[in-house]
Amino acid sequence: MLTELRIRNVAIIESVTLPLAPGLNVLTGETGAGKSIIIEALGLICGDRASADQVRAGADKAVVEGIFEIGEPGAVLQALDDRGIEPDEQRVVIRREVSAAGRSRAWINDISVTSAVLAEVGQLLVSVHGQHESRGLLEPERQRVILDAYAGAADAVAATAAAHEQLASVSAEMKALVTRREQAERRADYLRHVVSEIGAAHLVPGEEARLDEESRRLNHVGELRQHVEHLRSAVEDDEEGALRALGVAQRALGAAARVDPSLERMRSMLDAAFAQLQELSRDAAHYEDGLDVDPARLVEVERRRDVLFRLGKKYGGSVESALQALQEAQQELDLLDTAAMDLGMLAQRETAARAALVDAARRLTEARTKAAGKLQKEVDKLLPRLGLADGHLRVVLLPLGEITRSGAEAVEFHVALNVGHDARPLARVASGGELARVMLAITTILARIDQVPTLIFDEVDAGIGGGVALQVADTMREVASHHQVLAITHLAQIASRAHRHVVVSKGARGGVTTADLRLVDGDARVEETARMLGGDAGSVAGRKHARELLAHTAKRKES
To answer: Where does residue 295 rank: exposed (0-12), middle (13-18), buried (19+ CB within 10 A)?
Structure first.
């Protein structure tokens, strides 16, 4: 339940606090006073889109904060727990800020959340029903959702959607495999050529680099031999070679170490250097022995390099890309042999998936058929109380040619609102006022099973008045017996039935237009009710009529 709504710097509102209570709460006031801004602000903390236009002129940011009391554990607490948010003694505080630049931030119990999370939690706390929502009732999709909600068919709807998705996935897999097989059949000759050509070359990854190295060596044997000879001479020469010089150094250091043992470390280093030079000399000699001019091998290497270059250029630029082309071509050819078996297995899966979809859709149809009859009867009982004495609702299930993710039928609400007229689609027979009352009847019924604690009725009384308005008011008050209701209204009949009455008024503060709220009771409520009845809050007749309306509500409460 929403216990308090605090609004600061939203549109023309500078700063207001709206206290709410259980039961029926009404907001009234002159047209343009700012009632719709209250709903807009409430929408912000329920995840609606934010914009810089919502920030009051001259303010840095708009701030809306809602305090909700949560009763028994349910969907709200589960949603918060899933996101690591703990309620504060069964209380949830939602805060939304919108900067003048249009940037938005939100918190739930001081935990920063995204607008998506805000919307998910908000729809569990508040449900808005307004003129726009009534027009939405004309859409077949909305009518289907209403019937499914009344039927409690969420699991059946989810099962049907999942089965449809599974069937679509298998069918798409089959279609893709058939397409790939057809492509392979068209390309079979080319693919065999690719496999034959690349396979005959027996390519080896990294072969290009090894052949390039060998080619350079074979083309520069003389130059390499000359360099190696110079190396060996520098190391092995009897007069000036490095080995002879190190031998002299070894003897000198050995003599010194016999006098000063601390030189042994240097002696070990010199011995290691001498050993490495000896190994270098042996390796150089072995390398030199292998530097033989081999024209035949050079021709073989160049021929092989030409093969690799040609295949690489033809199939992607390298040996690796050619090998990849070989693998892909072989896989496509293999598909010609395996596709029939794979398609057979997929066909079995498709048959099973289709059977599962048919079964899920059948169970959903059964739930809808049963619920349709019950919903018709309940709405028909309510319509006379809402001024539609001859009104009847028919929930029609229209079979579809093919099962969709939403089931095997479309749902269409038909109504007959006058004697002697056949029931026809709601969009073709209902005026704005009639549509609002049909929507109110459905909402009243759904509210009994709806877990959302707070319902908002935003001027759903459009197009009605007199005795019908009283009937609508009594219906709202009935809904308020098991839900908190906030109604924005221009009708005194509805306002008179409220448990709490708040008036929105517009004035000026500091030369800037602003809206204010005040809770009215006693004479103040009589005056506001009289104003709503005839526009003159001070008229004797108006005040008398207002007292009669309010007294009637008090008597009903006592009884």
So the answer is: exposed
pTM of the shown model: 0.62
How many domains does the chain divide into? 2
CA distance 199 to 329: 11
Torsion of CA 480, 483, 485, 491, to 10 degrees: -30
Q: Is residue 37 located within the same domain as residue 132?
A: yes
* Residue 529 belongs to a domain: yes
- The rounded distance, in Å, linking the Cα atoms of 92 and 77 is 9
The domain that holds 440 is classified in CATH as 3.40.50.300
Q: Tell me: the pLDDT tens digits for 146-202?
A: 899 899 999 999 999 999 999 999 999 888 878 777 777 777 777 778 788 888 888
CA neighbor of 255 nearest in space, from 240, 266, 241, 242: 266
Residue span of the structural domain in which 542 resides: 521-559
> What residues contact 30, with CB distance under 8 A and at least 6 apart?
505, 506
Based on the fold, state whether residues 504 and 534 are members of the same structural domain: no
Among 136, 151, 130, which Cα is nearest to 395's?
Answer: 151
CA dihedral sign of residues 231, 232, 233, 234:
positive
416: β partners: 392
The three-class DSSP label of residue 515 is: strand
Say yes or no: 110 and 44 in one domain. Answer: yes
Beta bridge partners of 517: 504
Q: Is residue 330 part of a domain?
A: no
Q: Which residues contact 403 (CB under 8 A, 6 or more apart)?
A: 160, 164, 357, 358, 361
